[in-house]
């Protein structure tokens, strides 16, 4: 259990990739701050299971990633209740699929707030804690869309390119503090976020559900397989190891070869 005594705050960890990060880190003994929306009973069941797996704290914090003061309060609470903030994973994210001329302004604002600005606010609040202990890991779930674009995803692609820029900058700022900052860029991972965009893509492109899965989603992925949440979480776990201390400012693809094309 190489993460015993360490605390990980993971935004958007009530579902999908974020929950897989939480399980992987808890299995190595990390205290977890679970965050995100969802059914209260399901969240409590996940929280209790994480506590059981790690043998230490697992907290749930409902901070809304569109609200900077709630983000700062979550980081401070994590430090106060578990004793430290060692690992921050910026993972909360939403998607909206529409051509730019029909893209609702409030969807642009929400995607930029949740997928981009929240990462900046999390890092800003967490780095002073990490500096104090001389160790930290900042991991951000970017996307293959941090490297390449797809039509009808202007806000998402902008936000994902943006988190890579923040990560590179912060990696330079904390390089001598024992802190690393990296992005993980998955291709298509089968989670609610992907499942929920299928109806809009069907509408936007006039396709059937099967056509969206085979001809839009998996078309981009040479392996013709969805990435799994466990594969993404395994890379995050490696980035937390001391052997990964020289990996910083990187954007690491887990995309079945998508962006090699
Ligand atoms: P998901 O929908 O399963 O999880 C998203 C999480 O974010 C949930 O816990 C949700 O409650 C939380 N969230 C949403 N809005 C929030 C808010 N305002 N405040 C706090 N939490 C909020 O989706 P996922 O696929 O697991 O996505 C996780 C991350 O991975 C996202 O950043 C996404 O862009 C990225 N990603 C996903 C894929 C994929 O194919 N699924 C590919 C590349 C990158």
TrEMBL record:
Superkingdom of this protein's organism: Bacteria
Keywords tagged on the record: Oxidoreductase
Gene3D superfamilies hit by this protein: NAD(P)-binding Rossmann-like Domain
EC number(s) given by UniProt: 1.1.1.30
InterPro entries in the cross-refs: 3-OHbutyrate_DH (IPR011294), NAD(P)-bd_dom_sf (IPR036291), Sc_DH/Rdtase_CS (IPR020904), SDR (IPR050259), SDR_fam (IPR002347)
EC class of the enzyme, as a word: oxidoreductase
UniProt-recorded Gene Ontology molecular function terms: 3-hydroxybutyrate dehydrogenase activity
GO biological process: monocarboxylic acid metabolic process
Family under the similarity heading: Belongs to the short-chain dehydrogenases/reductases (SDR) family.
UniProt-listed NCBIfam families: PHB_DH, PRK12429.1
This protein's name: 3-hydroxybutyrate dehydrogenase
Source species of the chain: Sphingomonas sanguinis
